[in-house]
Fold this protein.
Amino acid sequence: MTLRHVVTWKVAGDTEQERDAIKSEFRDRLLSLPPQIDVIRSFEVGLNDAGAADNFDVVLVSEFDDEDALQQYIVHPVHQEVVAFVRANTVGRAGVDYIL
């Protein structure tokens, strides 16, 4: 079984420049996770480059062996550090987890 975990966020920020800086740091922090958390099987981060202003800004598409592996990822201390940054710098989140 493979479980795909997809999350997208709308970043905070008063200016486009501020939002772009947050998006870049967001991407860098997320991409630091796979080398540190061995239950991650696949991990892709994308930044919204075009489209409507109401589009979400950042997307994460990741895969895990099963629900237990996803839960290990969620509670991992390194992931929790990124979560703190995310919560402080976003105004919206949507997610879905599904079995491939």
